[in-house]
């Protein structure tokens, strides 16, 4: 059984609501006591949730916030349904860049950026999109879903992004809220998918996967959808069935591991303070190294 | 859904292997409607109307013309079992996913189970606790 | 380089009232098609077709329209065309319907078809014509379009000054 992740849950000041979102994501408890046997009780939940901090440089010239510590927020993390393991909460930073100077935060050794597990970028112009695909050290590139795509996707930067292991992110909450945004979401997603899949894929020895993830950016529990529902939505966006499922499971994991390589030295050496390395962690670092090696070649 | 049937002919002892994909005509879905606030009631016709309007919004008149049935509906828990023909499954599912409100109340459809067999909805293997 | 394949639909707008032909313009046709598409196939259908949907050419006199759409979704667009019953402009409604004449992969083949189609129409007109003056006019125009090569056709009747897509 695959592990589902939702890499975008908005960070809210309202801790209680955030907690309820997490609760919903981990497992769906029926709010109504059931008398009939009609209802199944629970569903498979998400195993990994990323809390998203947005840094918009245009609005205010302020520093990037420190990420909230998940253990501070939640004294006891909810158990994932069907896994008997607590949900994993990671932090994520989304930079909205509309000017090349904004990218300096990523290039310079900013201590704040390093605190986050995943770094995403939301490019506003074609040049920045190109830069994000080819050179910026990010894990995710957000696709605009609330308005008509201001530029056309081009094949070369997207190819580079696929090779670097950078993922494109589609968000589905605006599509739930509003009809016009739904149109933009679907049409932007379709135009991205048409570029992502091409004849060039056949030249590679292994089949090129679609490097797309679908996430929620939910602000309340009701905006969250189950992983299988999201996969069905992926079919609507022009993904194949396997790709749609990968978009909520394995691709998310790959993005997470890609984020982990940033904390290591070239993705090869990983140092930790004191604390003996246990077997479980060793296992975790192995795929990271492999991924990094692929990257370097 | 793949069904493999092997038929043996008695006379000359040759085998015929038939592989069929998606042989089942219908899919059954167990769904539940959730509201943000409590105390929103709706009956079966309204429930079906809600699903129809969701289909019409996302897939237009063509989508609204899809034949689907509400087999059972429990007003208390707002849960239902739907029957939908195979080709309409993705359309119906995506329409349910993208439904966000009913008469200005925020709501969400939770798809609990889907199966080509109605009997499979009686139990849920995912519910089994892993220890 | 990935080439995106398109489909071009050659349609004829049939209206009762010849006066309202003057009012047909690109925006009007586009919005009418868009409305029909949303009604027939919803947000999803509109989103599919809007990727490269365009009304490439409109001729108000003959009521000829070229519509471009992605190849993968042109059936959605085509199936919603019959549901257009009227064009709306400045609060006035003109009942009409869209008659699809030809569908092809390039705008050039559409143009060629349109020229052939118009020649046939001329012949039909000739057959029906009653007065001598009319007959002379039609004959001369048929001659003018049959003598020249089809490629550099500049007939006013065929009305196909549109350049093929580069």
Automatic annotation (TrEMBL), chain A:
Compartments in which it is found: Nucleus, Nucleolus
What biological processes does GO assign it? rRNA processing; tRNA processing
Gene Ontology molecular function terms on file: RNA binding
Coiled coil start-end: none
Swiss-Prot/TrEMBL keywords? Acetylation, Nucleus, Phosphoprotein, rRNA processing, tRNA processing
| Superkingdom of origin | Eukaryota
InterPro entries according to UniProt: Pol/histidinol_Pase-like (IPR016195), RNase_P_p30 (IPR002738)
Entries under SUPFAM superfamilies matching the protein: PHP domain-like
**Protein function:** Component of ribonuclease P, a ribonucleoprotein complex that generates mature tRNA molecules by cleaving their 5'-ends. Also a component of the MRP ribonuclease complex, which cleaves pre-rRNA sequences.
Tell me how this protein assembles. Answer: Component of nuclear RNase P and RNase MRP ribonucleoproteins. RNase P consists of a catalytic RNA moiety and about 10 protein subunits; POP1, POP4, POP5, POP7, RPP14, RPP21, RPP25, RPP30, RPP38 and RPP40. Within the RNase P complex, POP1, POP7 and RPP25 form the 'finger' subcomplex, POP5, RPP14, RPP40 and homodimeric RPP30 form the 'palm' subcomplex, and RPP21, POP4 and RPP38 form the 'wrist' subcomplex. All subunits of the RNase P complex interact with the catalytic RNA. Several subunits of RNase P are also part of the RNase MRP complex.
Q: Which family does it belong to?
A: Belongs to the eukaryotic/archaeal RNase P protein component 3 family.
Identification of the protein by name: Ribonuclease P protein subunit p30
Give the originating organism: Geotrypetes seraphini
The major lineage groups are: Eukaryota, Metazoa, Chordata, Craniata, Vertebrata
UniProtKB/TrEMBL annotation, chain B:
UniProt-recorded name of the protein: Ribonuclease P protein subunit p14
UniProt source species: Geotrypetes seraphini (Gaboon caecilian)
What the entry lists under SUPFAM superfamilies is as follows:
Rnp2-like
Biological processes, Gene Ontology terms: tRNA 5'-leader removal
Which terms are listed as keywords in the entry?
tRNA processing
Tell me which InterPro entries the record gives.
Pop5/Rpp14/Rnp2-like, Rnp2-like_sf
Family listed: Belongs to the eukaryotic/archaeal RNase P protein component 2 family.
Q: Entry's Pfam families?
A: RNase_P_Rpp14
| Matches recorded under PANTHER family | RIBONUCLEASE P PROTEIN SUBUNIT P14
Q: Name one GO molecular function term.
A: ribonuclease P RNA binding
Q: Which domain of life is it from?
A: Eukaryota
The record's Gene Ontology cellular component field reads:
multimeric ribonuclease P complex; nucleolus
From TrEMBL, chain C:
**Where are stretches of biased composition, namely Acidic residues?**
149-166
Keywords of the record, alphabetical order, are: Nucleus, rRNA processing, tRNA processing
Q: Where is the segment annotated Disordered?
A: 147-166
Q: What is its main location?
A: nucleus
Q: Which GO terms describe its molecular function?
A: ribonuclease P RNA binding
Listed under GO biological process in this entry are: rRNA processing; tRNA 5'-leader removal
Transmembrane stretches in the record are none
The parts of the chain that form a coiled coil are none
Q: Which GO terms describe its cellular component?
A: multimeric ribonuclease P complex; nucleolus
Top-rank taxon, per record: Eukaryota
Q: Where in the cell is it found?
A: Nucleus, Nucleolus
Pfam families per the UniProt record, alphabetical: RNase_P_Rpp14 (PF01900)
- InterPro entries assigned: Pop5/Rpp14/Rnp2-like, RNase_P/MRP_POP5, Rnp2-like_sf
Q: What does this protein do?
A: Component of ribonuclease P, a protein complex that generates mature tRNA molecules by cleaving their 5'-ends. Also a component of the MRP ribonuclease complex, which cleaves pre-rRNA sequences.
Subunit notes for this chain?
Component of nuclear RNase P and RNase MRP ribonucleoproteins. RNase P consists of a catalytic RNA moiety and 10 different protein chains; POP1, POP4, POP5, POP7, RPP14, RPP21, RPP25, RPP30, RPP38 and RPP40. Within the RNase P complex, POP1, POP7 and RPP25 form the 'finger' subcomplex, POP5, RPP14, RPP40 and homodimeric RPP30 form the 'palm' subcomplex, and RPP21, POP4 and RPP38 form the 'wrist' subcomplex. All subunits of the RNase P complex interact with the catalytic RNA. Several subunits of RNase P are also part of the RNase MRP complex.
- Which family is it part of? Belongs to the eukaryotic/archaeal RNase P protein component 2 family.
Q: What is this protein called?
A: Ribonuclease P/MRP protein subunit POP5
